[in-house]
Amino acid sequence: MSDTDSLQLVLVSGLSGSGKSIALRVLEDASYYCVDNLPATMLEDTLRVLAGYGEFRVAISIDARSRDSWRHLPDLLERLRGQVNVRLLFLEAKTDTLVRRYSETRRRHPLANADRALREAIEWERELLEPIARIAHRMDTSDLSASTLQHWIKDFVAQKDARLTLLFTSFGFKHGIPLDADMVFDVRCLPNPHYDPRLRPLTGRDAPVIEFLQQNGQVAEMLADIRNHVTKWLPCFVRDHRAYLTVAIGCTGGQHRSVYLCEQLAQHFSREEQTLLRHRELGYGCAQ
Length: 288
What we know:
The chain is an alpha/beta fold. The chain has helices at 20-29, 43-52, 73-80, 95-105, 118-128, 130-135, 146-158, 207-214, 217-239, 257-269; strands at residues 8-14, 33-35, 57-61, 85-92, 137-140, 165-172, 183-186, 244-251, 274-279, 284-287.
């Protein structure tokens, strides 16, 4: 496949209803040639044809609609690495969220039938696609607005894929743990700015909240412990050829403590690592 050596490929996969159509629209706006629902067995031939037409930025959606051909995807990716600049994005969401989305749109799940109800179809699809999710950059869209998802996908395609990207994401436990987290830290034991009426409407990115948290020794100790843990185990994920490592830090509402700690960690690790920062409950994300 020498004619595809300079090709940039983004493969989009994930659960039905998780936002793959939004991802493809973002990639199309970013000048990628987009193909939806391509059987995995046609991937190499498609790339060769597109390269022949001068299309070297390609985004392709491959998911459970491709029947059994998606099972070949891990082996195909292994063959393509070194020949094509390839990244794999996997979108997912909580089952209740997907059920609600299908109920609102009145669409039929591609794996649902007379013998398989909607929830059963969603869980079966999740199980079928687990081998792909395991090797991809996972993105939990359960609590994201369309605009936030668009922003996060733009950050994803902007990253260099030559080395691991370290992603810090804050969240609120009352909204659930992110499905895409590799490491999860619970910081609800730390002093909560929420109980100060002056600080309640602010976030962990605002100076008064930062000052409040920096004055507490437990916060500094927790920050150091998380930083040391990530530092210790990061080389293990690099050796495993992981493209992304997602570190999720949660407090009660995802507004103050978790936001502050993610900001501090991203600032620290961005000195030497390729880093992304996301605040799920704030609808915020950026590259570092």
